[in-house]
Amino acid sequence: MALEEAMALTNRLLTSADALAAMTARLRLDELGDGGDHAVRAQLDRVADVLDARDIYDGLDERERAVVVAFARSYLSQALDLLENPLREPGWSYTDPVLLQAQGSASAAVATLFTAAGLGAPGVRILDVGTGVAGLAIAFCRTYPEATVVGIDPWQPALELARRNVEAAGLGARVTLVASTIEDFHDEDGFDLAWLPSFFVPEAVLDDAIGRIHEVLRPGGELVVGTTLGEDGSLETAVDKLRNLRSGGSVTTAAAALARLERTGFANVREPDLGPEVPLRLGVGTRA
Questions:
Q1: What does residue 197 show for φ and ψ, rounded to 5 degrees?
Q2: In the chain, what is the straight-line distance between the N-terminal and C-terminal CA atoms, in Å?
Q3: Among 218, 223, 248, 286, which is most buried by a count of CB atoms within 10 Å?
Q4: What is the mean pLDDT of each run of 10 residues along the chain (288 residues)?
């Protein structure tokens, strides 16, 4: 009886995973154009109809489709790595270029959330902590005219891709890439805006990271701490914590992030209301 129950639960969970893969594949077909099996294409549309998602996905423009596809590919790849390597030590140790590029493309959506929260302005100097392949750094440049970005990351496989991406985007004069952790980072010019994704920063150094950014911000500069955790005991939150821990990051909540900002001496500490559908939470503080 135990096997039957386990298989039934596995099948329910697989349905969700397969549905995500199906919707992502359907979006990729828009990139790939004609081709493929007609019956498979028709069934992808049926899955979209069952999910009542056709209008949502069909309403995306090219850039938005790319973000959703990248988001799904990155998380599905990380899930597969967990399945194949459950004994691996926590940390961001991925070298697969497809996964790294997917994660970077997905992170580009953060720039849109910044503008929705009323953060930033043309010409700002931005610190992008954990820049990865520079997807967000490039998005910042496109979002804020004349802005410059310093992207820092200790992971060389990602930085190698970042350099190529910045060059391909023609942003070499506006994006500077530095191989460093935030704890060891030094800067003399100061920043107007800084991004700190807590889910990629180890818990043991999170307070030091916030303090270091406070030091390199200009007066009036703002630090934005990203968290993805809710306050409830849902499956989504449990999986979120697992993903963060395995990536070597923190599992802090938005409320805890705000408390850290206040303890460090930030003023006007707040959480912008991005709406219930946005999985990312932002904690913002201003250097007085």
A1: -80, 105
A2: 63
A3: 223
A4: 86 90 91 84 93 91 86 90 93 91 90 95 96 97 96 97 97 98 95 96 95 98 90 82 91 93 98 87 96
> Whose CA is closest to 153, among 171, 173, 135?
135
Q: Write phi, then psi, for 20 (nearest 5 degrees).
A: -65, -45
The DSSP letter of residue 130 is T
Asked if residue 22 lies in contact with residue 44, where contact means CB atoms within 8 angstroms, the answer is yes
**For residues 175 and 138, is the Cβ–Cβ distance under 8 A?**
yes
pLDDT at 35: 77
Rounded Cα distance, 43 and 40, in Å: 5
- Structure token pair of residue 143: 């979002």
Assign domain 99-286 to a CATH class. Answer: alpha beta
Dihedral sign of CA atoms 106, 102, 166, 193 in order: positive
Place of tokens 């390199």: 216
For the chain, domain boundaries:
2-84, 99-286
